[in-house]
Design goal:
single chain, alpha/beta, 11-stranded mixed β-sheet, Hydantoinase_A, ATPase_NBD, Oxoprolinase-like, 5-oxoprolinase (ATP-hydrolyzing) activity
Length: about 675
Amino acid sequence: MTYCLGIDTGGTYTDAVIVDVENQTVLESQKSLTTYPNPIGGISKVLDSLSPDYLNAVSSIAVSTTLSTNTVLENTGDTAALILIGDEKYLKTDDSDSTSSKIEHYIIVNGGHDGNGDESAPLDTAAIEKFVLAVKDKVSAFAVSSYFSIRNPAHELAAKELITKLTLSDGVSHPVVCGHELAQSLGAYERGVTAYLNAMLLPVTRRFAEAVISEMKRRKISADIKILKCNGAVVGISEAMEKPVESIFSGPTASLLGASFLSKRDTCLMIDVGGTSTDISMMEDGFPDISESGATVGGWKTKVRAIRMETSALGGDSQVWLHSPSVSDLSLEKIKLGPRRIIPLCRAAALYPEILSVLGDRIFFDKFRFNEYVQPIRFFIRSGADVALTPDEQKIYDKIGDRPTSLHDILWGINYLPSEILSSLVQKKAVYMIGFTPTDVLHVLGDYTEFNAEASAIGARILSSFLEMDSVEFCRQVKKQFAQKMALEIVYFLTEKGLSDPSGELPAGKPLSDSRSFIRSFLSFKKPYAKFKVSVPVVMIGGPVQAFVPELNELLDAEFLTPEFFDVGNAVGSLVGKVSKRVEISVRVIQTESKYDLRSKGVLVHYPGGRRAFEYRDDAVAFARETGRAMIEDYMRSENIPLERVDLTSREEDVFISKGSVPVQTTFIFEGFAKNSL
């Protein structure tokens, strides 16, 4: 038998599965809480819980992780510098000012090429040298992106060589990431952002990958290790360490692949409810729906090809909080969900039982000052992070211990409400908040009882008392509100895709923003005779997500599936990814500039890493086809994939000046996929 190990490190849990390849079945699955800041602790713990007989027999390992995404979102990567090469007016984009302001060490220098790959201006090596010498002791890596480097990477490569020489110390130089190495599409600034993020992720990803390798060696497991990328492909762990930006959204991608595999549906919608967020994506005919425009993460627009995904800041650990009384007297309008993630009351009580002894006695009664940080049920606990604090922050921080401290105790002895200070301490991750969440709701309703249900029940009773509601009814309303938000995201996603049918009531020809307003109103005040029709199966992944199916059925006309092992679908999905390679090559006819004489001046072929000139188009096309196939085959050999296991496809996209003429440009897109055993 052939066994494979799949691992997913999510925001809350680290999951592991053992899969029998021949029988296409999950033999065993386990979960462990993810450890921070180093996730290897959670991985080690979940591996300890697997059967040694299965674990020692695995022949391959695949890992998906939220590490890259969270590092970018939390801005906890190593410091990097960005060098853009070209005319500044061509490097500006609509969002370049806002994103470049996030980069402390950043410069634009003269150089770059034109659309044919000819030099537009000489590379300003003096400016690069001055900049590198000024910042090399402040950064751990450099990113370089040059105008039209996808047509000629010479200036990027020259800058890389210069930086490597200038930063050499004790035989080691700073890593340098070039934009053309990560993307072959137009957009020098976006390629620069992609390279910059990759540069800042290099050290943290290397530490993680080396820890995984070390952990497997410690266990004497010699299996091949792959990392799942955000387009559904897997790469060897060595390549993953060089291109960590490609593992952004690795976690949701794993969930999508796992949903398709476990449900045995080649076309399906996936909804993954995690601790922090809810992610929605889609499989079509066995392949992930890919966004060609590039992934956007934390406000950074990249050139990374990733699954098309809708994400909302709503998860099982999102806080449920009460808004202060307002003009409206409707109790339900005072119940707020998220967006901040906190530690569920039930989980905290399981770890710190002393919470129960004070939970029911210490209530903050001043409901007119309720906000996200001041609630009738709120505890704070130190995170252990070493962060700089202001004197005012330090005063409140000193009142918070290494075990849960109630808001009542924090307020004791002070005559003001430190809402802004508590907010700042949470933002800086100096402390974590503990409170009521949807996970607690499920504990009260009996849908999920993993932790301390008594703490959840007390919390529900206290919160509902401020709304003059029964505690069980309060929890049912929160659950319904959560399901409504899930339904909203599903319909938003499918409306953009053009696959939803709201019984003919969606406003025709209206902007998407208007449609979204209509969808929200439609679901909030649902007519009993109409539902949104979802034309593809909806596979639900993650935690106790099946608990929301009854509420979703009231809102949507859809087939909801919760297949076996849905709670570890992401770990299964990490094994489903295929080794793949995509290569784009363009063949461009260079014509005379006169509009009266359109004779060809030759043909240029632009391929990853270089360009080549030909006199005749037929020769250029033959070279492009041969080069694309060879690059796919060489990559597969480097990944130890026999060529007989590779499916290679190609397509051509032509651009014509007039009907019936010879194409002035042809883009060849080659894709190779290793046949997966799963």
